[in-house]
Amino acid sequence: MMTAIVLINVNRPELNNVINKIMDIEGVTEVYAIAGEYDLAAIIRVKDNNTLSEIVADKMPHQISGIVRTKTLISLKSYSNFDLNKIFSSK
User: Which of 17, 31, 55, 73 is most buried, with most CB under 10 Å away?
Assistant: First the structure.
């Protein structure tokens, strides 16, 4: 499983619509409204790099109106008190 955190800037009037559209993407498990340089942080958990690329390079920037800029952070290793593969394997 690949995990990425995508930091997102949006046009503020379109914030709720952008959140709903991002949550509709298969592989997006969480979206957080955040303070600071970015407006949102989306957590993506997918099976491979091709699927991740499709989401961050195509769906988010080209299919969701209102996204101004993104920055993608790819997880190299995860640490958790929970078995994340077991939790997210049903998706």
Answer: 55
pLDDT tens digit string along 20-40?
A: 999 999 999 999 999 999 999
- Helix H or strand E segment including 26: none
Q: Is the pTM of this model over 0.90?
A: no
Helix (H, G, I), strand (E, B) or coil at 45: strand
In the chain, the domains with their CATH numbers are 2-88 (3.30.70.920)
Residue whose token pair is 């600071």: 36
Taking only the tens place, the pLDDT of each residue in 49-66 is 999 999 999 999 999 999
Q: What is the Cα gyration radius of the chain?
A: 13
Contacts for 14 with CB less than 8 Å, ≥ 6 apart: 65, 66
CA–CA–CA angle 32, 33, 37 (5° rounding): 115
